[in-house]
Amino acid sequence: MTPPTLVIGNKNYSSWSLRPWLFMKKSGVAFEEIRIPLYQPGSVEKQRQYSPTGLVPLLVDGDLKVWDSLAICEYVSEKFLDGKGWSADLQARAVARAVSAEMHSGFQAVRANLPMNLKAEFPWKFISDEVDAGIRRIAEIWTQCRERYGASGPWLFGEFSIADAMYAPVAWRFKSYGVPLEGVAERYLNTLLAMEEMQAWHADALGETEVLPQCEARDIWPQ
Question: N or C: which end of the chain has fewer CB within 10 A?
Fold first, then answer.
């Protein structure tokens, strides 16, 4: 059987690409990888060769194309993992889907002000009430999920799931910008960062040469 192909952007910057890549790697699903650096001459044209939206990530499985990070994870879970990308428990599964959707569509202030940049190390600074509220909400989600549903393992719902993959880019954001956490949320952050697959992504990111000024905090933060 020919493995699917995952088309991704820069590993240093593309938070959306990290999610399905990490989920598939951690779940042991074999796939081919195509990396298209973003915001470079010809990038959009190259992305449109694969993606109907001109965006990445995109999964190509035979004649099927699946775009959007959450949709890719859902498809992989159903086709290759017998649905095990979500918890078997009904209530835990419902909450996992809810917090994944919240990350998928929310936290705009965090995304805009703390863009994923694995090479960056910035001292923490208070930026706005909106960013602070987003950080506190993420810490709350991590803490509540771990305390209510995480008894069977180190992840949000015990076993590694799509929800963990959805929040993985936040771990790099918080590390790069020195976001202060404590307690359960801090321990979960460190668990994500220590993953073998996260470290492999990080190593690849460090080897990239592209620099995107719009993802460098010193260029976007108000002086």
Answer: C
